[in-house]
Design a protein that fits this description.
The complex is a heterodimer of chains A (113) and B (112).
Chain A: E1 5-7, E2 10-13, E3 19-24, E4 31-37, E5 43-50, E6 53-57, E7 64-68, E8 74-78, E9 87-94, E10 103-104, E11 108-112
Chain B: E1 4-5, E2 10-14, E3 19-25, E4 30-38, E5 45-51, E6 56-59, E7 62-67, E8 72-77, E9 86-94, E10 101-102, E11 106-111
Parallel strand pairs in B: 2-11
Antiparallel strand pairs in B: 1-3, 3-8, 4-5, 4-9, 6-7, 7-8, 9-10, 9-11
């Protein structure tokens, strides 16, 4: 158990809809990262927050947004969903910003039909 | 542009033998490298890391080797055990950049 909790585990929704994925980091971790893993692909970095502030942005679509709340949990919002957004979405957390191993949650599997 | 490449999507190794997983990178700014292991229906878990100031790091059955001139690193598992069957991701980070860049993974199967 990594200590990172992601909900829900599975999500099935239709194109055009909006969903929210939730992540609770490990106790004491200030950094939260979001990654997307599509079929047969590596983990693509989406966005990172540190202590409530956006720290780094990767290949995140404009239809996607995220935030980290004062209690350090994070939400990833995906809107105007398309079939190609179907993927595993992982949240990870770390205690420091640089060179700290990330601890991953078990992911949310999103299926857009 | 895939900056971290794992060219072998899969690898099968006999139990007890050595497993060697390879990873190549293109970004010369990468200075810290990590290996993650992933079981089905679970998130990746950190396995071992190496800084660019070293060329080898060992932790039990796992050893990571870094060849900076070739921009290549490898993970050696010896002896391989059935529980090592998983997908292994290589990842890299550049100094001053918090973004961890992952390879596409290699599925390792240990044959009993």
């Amino acid at each position: 158990d990594s200590g990172v909790t992601q909900t829900p585990k599975h999500l099935i929704t239709a194109t055009g809809q909006r969903v929210t994925l939730r992540c609770s980091p490990r106790s004491g971790d200030l950094s939260v990262y979001w990654y997307q893993q599509s079929l047969d692909q590596g983990l693509q970095f989406l966005i990172q927050y540190y202590n409530g502030e956006e720290r780094a942005k990767g290949n995140i679509l404009e239809r996607f947004s995220a935030q980290q709340f004062p209690d350090l949990h994070s939400e990833l919002n995906l809107s105007s969903l398309e079939l190609g957004d179907s993927a595993l979405y992982f949240c990870a957390s770390s205690v420091d910003v640089l060179n700290s191993p990330l601890h991953f949650g078990n992911g949310t599997r999103l299926t857009v039909t | 542009d895939q900056q971290v490449k794992q060219n072998s999507p899969s690898l099968s190794v006999q139990e007890g033998r050595i497993s060697i997983l390879n990873c190549d990178y293109t970004n010369s700014m990468f200075d810290y490298f990590l290996w993650y292991k992933k079981y089905p229906a679970e998130g990746p878990t950190f396995l071992i890391s190496i800084s660019s100031i070293k060329d080898k790091n060992e932790d039990g059955r796992f050893t990571v080797f870094l060849n900076k001139s070739a921009k290549h690193l490898s993970l050696h598992i010896v002896p391989s055990q059935p529980g090592d069957s998983a997908v292994y991701f290589c990842a890299a980070i550049a100094n001053g950049n918090e973004k961890l860049t992952f390879g596409t993974g290699t599925r390792l199967t240990i044959i009993p």
